[in-house]
Amino acid sequence: MDAAEYDLIVIGAGPVGENVADRAVQGGLSVAIVESELVGGECSYWACMPSKTLLRAGAALAAAVDAPGALPAASGPRRVDVAAVLRRRDEIVHEWNDAGQVQWLQDAGIELVRGHGRLTGEREVTVARDGADAARLRARYAVAVCTGSAALLPDIPGLADARPWTSREATAVQQMPESLVILGGGVVACEMATAYASFGVAVTVLARSALLHGVEPFAGEFVTDSLRAAGVDVRTDAQVTAVVREDDGRVRVDLSEGESVTASEILVATGRVPRTGDLGLEAVGLEPGAWLDVDDTLRVRGSAWLYGVGDVTHRALLTHQGKYQARAAGDVIAVRAHGGEVDDAPWGAHVATADHDAVPQVVFTAPEVAAVGLTAAQAEERGIRVRALDVDLAQIAGASTRAAHYRGQARAVVDEDRGVLVGATFVGEDAGEMLHAATIAVVGEVPLHRLWHAVPAYPTLSEVWLRWLEAYGRESAVST
């Protein structure tokens, strides 16, 4: 079997792999990308894009209901048109057809190899192809693993046999169930509970702890209250002991307290695992199924040629962070291939520094949750002398003009010794649109005294920045 040779071989053609490949091509390298499913990956077909489409109609309707005059008084039942939402979802995912993405690869000068790629030696990838002989690919300089992550299936008796949904089935749904029980309290669980409740599905959420653990506690409390107001049965501190798919097709979930919950379907949203189990890692001395331990240039530690980019690194399981990593990785692979100088200092061109302290994330619940950087608790754990500044967003003029019953909160986390922002969290309608300003402030380490000169427009929600500064100034005066 002859081997085709390229400068770089990328395994996985999701957004991360596409960006690694594109940056490397722009850097003058020849690149092959290997994909066993759809080009465009999880985000395009089963995650970010379809999930946000499923959520949009409910959010728009809720906003209209809370804006007096937006809906006629005699407008009839105020319900989401589920069929229309699913049609729009199908348009967004292009009916799960990747022809457009394949054309993009061709236009970018990236060669696509269809099939399942496995490492079979140093700088060597063998691709199993349906109906054809395997293809052996050789990399002159590097191989980048960009295979992403998959839903974790917890070891609960009967769960695997109950044919549970994961996020893939939830976002690709064709026929709405009457009821849905969701295991988990993280982003996927909260977003899908929000979407399915807007579709009129009876939803139960079973979480082992408070919702949205890992962000500021008040964010999870807002989302919990909102879900319950929408009719969702949210149960925290829930311990599932067994799952059974009954003869009538319904699912029964047994709890440690002796109670049971039944539903038409069950969605498991309890975490993610790396898609590295059948990747041939053992052929290069690594543990199959493990997360890849990489340095800040995304090169696997101990290797001179193997890179891990995106979810497989377990650094920040978010599409935008994966693409950020991909830009750094593609550029540094090209620079190293040409013998150039690597800029691997913190915040350098070839590193993913923001993965550590400045990761932005939006949870598209109702209300939205948007956060960047450290929570107050995380900052304190790092030994930072912290001041948390809290503002009720409902008291901002821009909120009163948007909705009759706006609810929200914003927290800034200040490093007192340096006088800079190290974290920010916003909860409220369209909170995600306020996030990037905070991301810039955190990444740029903009001094708070300088932010007094960044004047927010009136009346907008961005006036929260002025309220933060006023609170900081007043509290500083009191403390001195």
From TrEMBL:
Residue span(s) of domain FAD/NAD(P)-binding = 6-321
Disulfide bond residue pairs: 43-48
Instruction: Provide the residue positions that the database annotates as binding FAD.
Output: 52, 117, 147-149, 311
Matching entries from InterPro entries are given as: FAD/NAD-bd_sf, FAD/NAD-binding_dom, FAD/NAD-linked_Rdtase_dimer_sf, Pyr_nuc-diS_OxRdtase, Pyr_nucl-diS_OxRdtase_dimer
The Pyridine nucleotide-disulphide oxidoreductase dimerisation domain is annotated at 359-465
Q: Which UniProt keywords apply?
A: FAD, Flavoprotein, NAD, Nucleotide-binding
Task: Write out the residues that bind NAD(+).
Answer: 184-191, 271
Q: How is the cofactor bound?
A: Binds 1 FAD per subunit.
| Molecular function terms from GO | flavin adenine dinucleotide binding; NAD(P)H dehydrogenase (quinone) activity
Annotated Gene3D superfamilies? 3.30.390.30, FAD/NAD(P)-binding domain
Q: Which Pfam families match?
A: Pyr_redox_2 (PF07992), Pyr_redox_dim (PF02852)
Superkingdom per UniProt: Bacteria
What cofactors are annotated for this protein?
FAD
Looking up PANTHER family in the UniProt record yields: MERCURIC REDUCTASE (PTHR43014)
Similarity remark: Belongs to the class-I pyridine nucleotide-disulfide oxidoreductase family.
Report what the protein is called: Pyridine nucleotide-disulfide oxidoreductase
